[in-house]
Amino acid sequence: MCLHLDPWWGSVCVCVCVCVCVCVKPLRSVAALSLSLSRSMDFLKLCTFETFQQLWSHYGYGGNFRDVIEQEFTRIKGITYLDHAAATLYPESLVRDYCQDMSRNVYGNPHSHSPSSRLTHDTVERVRYRVLQHFNTTPEEYSVIFTSGCTAALKLVAESFPWRPPTESEAGSHFCYLTDSHTSVVGMRGLTCSRGVAAVPVSPQELDNRTEDEAQGEDVICQTPHLFCYPAQSNFSGKKYPLSHVKGIQARRLYPACAHKGRWFVLLDAAALVSCSSLNLQTCPADFIPISFYKMFGFPTGLGALLVRNDAAGILKKTYFGGGTAAAYLSGEDYYVQAANISDRFEDGTVSFLDIIGVNHGFDALYRITGNMHNIQQHTFGLARYTYMLLSSLCHGNGRPVAQMYTEGQFESPVTQGAILNFNLTDSKGQIIGYAQVDRMASLYNIHVRTGCFCNTGACQSFLGITNEQMRRNLQAGHVCGDSLDLVDGQPTGSVRVSFGYMSTFEDCQKFLSFVVECFVEKPVTVDQVRLQKLKTATAASRGSDNHPSPKMTNGGICKVDEETATEASLKGFAHRDSNSHGEAYTLTNIYIYPIKSCGAYEVHDWPVGPLGLLYDRGWMVVNGNGVCLSQKREPRLCLIRPQVHLPSDKLLLRASGMDTISVPLQSKTQLHTSSQVCQSRVCGDRSPHDESQVKKSYSSTDSWIRCRTK
Ligand SMILES: *Cc1c(COP(=O)(O)O)cnc(C)c1O
After folding, report:
1. pLDDT (tens digit per residue) in 32-65
2. Which of 455, 456, 481 to mutate to test the pocket of ligand 1 (most atoms within 8 A of CB)?
3. Is 276 a catalytic residue?
4. pTM, whole model, 2 decimals?
């Protein structure tokens, strides 16, 4: 995070601890922290590699894992990257080999017939083959259609599936999807609904409970095509849904297929699963499987694929046709004959051939470093399970749990659970701590996690217990997907997700857990030993059994305080969240305004109100050389700048230790009277025009103060 900072910042580096206290008020002094930590022997002992190894024996990939990480991922030194479900990291050898390949070979357009074109064509075909091989299938069974990503692959299916609208004599097609699906799956509804086709959300419970014993078989009379979509792994909770559902739906044994006659096709969204697990298409013959390659290799981005079962490909109807997809067509007449080859037929225009060649290097590096996907699954599951065990057993000084975990099982087995942890932290009174606060603190510690609803509203609603009505109310309260309005009326609008990749290390878990303890646990740290013991045995007990327990919150209750540490006086005043539920009157004594977005607060006891709210509150922002607004997410130390609005002199004064005070005029004469050039920046998703004549060069050649005219 401090990598490309100006020397100006150098002098204030040491003050980061100050900023912690300023930004997140509930924090106590560092001295108190280390004192209570050192006494919490239980937790410290749990947080060692020795303990980890006792809990899980698969770590690394043979050889010296640490050396490999140091060589291949030098750039993440000092960073705790725990957002692999969003994008994993590429190893250095991948990009090095790729660059070498690119600089040594001449790759032409694969649709020409020159030697350079043939080289491209052959390399692309080789990659297709490797993709199929990776998923244990062959070109006889499946075809690879390259797309720009998983989402584009889903859209392709939505656009070309032969949806049949209902008629007077026939019920028509059904588009069914598991509610724990990614937005990009649910969004297929936009297409089906406009064609009059019924969209049927199916909850995981419905799928489990409504089954038929006898396979219904294909109906020879009714050939109405239906589509069922479900994620092989939830991108929210990491839950792995049984791959046996594929055959169950195809044979009309499972709901919703057993309830509707016709021919059932299954789309298995494997985007989240395949980053850390293998997928065997021999045993799980899904009809359509969309994936994105950056989730497997970290590079290339903008490339995905739709794997199509050749038997099912024939039903897909082409509407738009682009270059390379026709066997023949006439320009002057509506005559188009599609290409016989399935990949050719659906790859409109020229595929991103250089990126596809990158996939080759992706496979090379992945197998070279890890051996195979099974090793990756074991390694990442172990890390996730360990983190889950500790986080869900961790308690405040008063014995209340620190985290509310959003998981269905208890990380019993890598067969049912991926390397994803989803949770909200709670304070010692049991109140949820908003995810945005956790995210901001994590950024200060250079810990990279994902927060919000993860493009999976269905799972978010189900785990957090948010009704449709509440979702609408949250929007009215100003909450939109991806923002930092983390609590509405004390109820969470999202959560925190920690996800692992094949290059994640034990140190990542350790750093993350220490961070939670330091920032969010009321001391003394205690551990729910009973729960921990139960989790330890859960894995052993579940081996060989197939049941999936379904309680949602697995650690909702108050846990037992460890006798040894409970005597220590607990520190009070952390994260007070008094609610005025008893109707008592409160007096407002002071207000903090934030004149500059992401900088420190300015405390006032009375303050004028302007036409757009509190005067000068969030009136400015800091932008970089490209006009992009800097935020605390990217530059945590912005909060060291203490702005002060001096009304008598009409000046905004900026102070930070180690620099001279900067004075910016509050009002500019030119701003009101000249038609100055306006540039655009995005602040929290909103376009904000700002006035370049107001640029005030202040502390570096690339960053500038700009008067923001959003308000
Ligand atoms: C990431 C993801 C997607 C969307 O992938 P894009 O690469 O954003 O197109 C869809 N489904 C799941 C389960 C995912 O994890």
Report:
1. 443 343 346 788 899 999 999 999 999 999 989 9
2. 455
3. no
4. 0.76
